[in-house]
Amino acid sequence: MMTDEVKLYGLWRSPFVCRVKIALNIKGIKYEFIEEDLDNKSAELLKYNPVYKKVPVLVHNGNPISESLVIIEYIDEVWKGVPILPQDAYEKAQARFWAKFINDTCIPALYKAIGSHGEEQDVVEANKQLQFLENELNVKGVVEEVLGIELANKDKFPKIIEWSDNYIKCQAVKDGLPPRETLLAFLKNLFGKV
Amino acid sequence: MMTDEVKLYGLWRSPFVCRVKIALNIKGIKYEFIEEDLDNKSAELLKYNPVYKKVPVLVHNGNPISESLVIIEYIDEVWKGVPILPQDAYEKAQARFWAKFINDTCIPALYKAIGSHGEEQDVVEANKQLQFLENELNVKGVVEEVLGIELANKDKFPKIIEWSDNYIKCQAVKDGLPPRETLLAFLKNLFGKV
């Protein structure tokens, strides 16, 4: 049996990297994690992702793969065991649609609301996008604690909150996320609130 | 044997819609095409794609799917026969990476160069992105004829041009693209050149 060599180039606080860690954990794959310094990117990262020069990059037996959703599809196809995407073609299409929605629409709207320190119109827009999600996204947590604004609550988004609460109970997810206190300290520093 | 009911809500000149038409043609799937009026979108489009309200939307036996790349993955999974994506997991990941690159990076750069009527810095940027593509994209054609600028040529991008020339020779592709003269007339009108 061939031994797989799996390396993940990442950044501890990137949600796109955490997503890949969680996928690897779900499959029970052993991997080496290489923390990148974004101000001084490694030669390997520049070689493996010459188009975007971004993390995450998964390197499987020397073959690099970039873009978190592409990586997750690859992990799901190569390693059997617990499936990540639904098996039914239509349900799989729905999962891909919502994953793309989170990437292209939700995350940018949330980043904008965070970047503007909770400016009302940006929060309204983020809420509008979250309204489309019923059971896909984990947004409650440290961001709200840092900014002192509420992006999602049980009354407005009961299904997201329920999904989120269940999601973070899973061991594979817990192991893929940074420690809450570390992330909180980083964000407080970033946004100038102590 | 169950008869499939396949409907495609689209717009004749949208490259995202043409892409789905080509996938359906490759699989030999019969479908009903519904041309949308973007100024007066149909109730069906709004119902089937409430998030983006955009074409293309594929409706298969009453189940709607949005986002062209998600639709193509679905078509490839549901209808066997000629495969669209590579079978090998790593090659498939590469195909997904480049498809995402074309969507997120190349097409926006090209639209920007077109929208600014070929402003130098926008053409340089589009060329920079095209440089990453060796065999994925069909960019040569009516856009250049309308604007009188050259975005891609045989010296700079020999592999793209070769791929493009071969791509449009395929009958499934030809049948999925709008007539050249119709598209040319539309774009000339749009950009005010006759």
Automatic annotation (TrEMBL), chains A, B:
Protein name: Glutathione S-transferase
Domain GST N-terminal positions: 4-83
Major location category of this protein: cytoplasm
Transferase found in the keyword field: yes
Family listed: Belongs to the GST superfamily. Tau family.
Keywords linked to the UniProt accession: Cytoplasm, Transferase
Organism of origin: Ambrosia artemisiifolia (Common ragweed)
Localization, UniProt: Cytoplasm, Cytosol
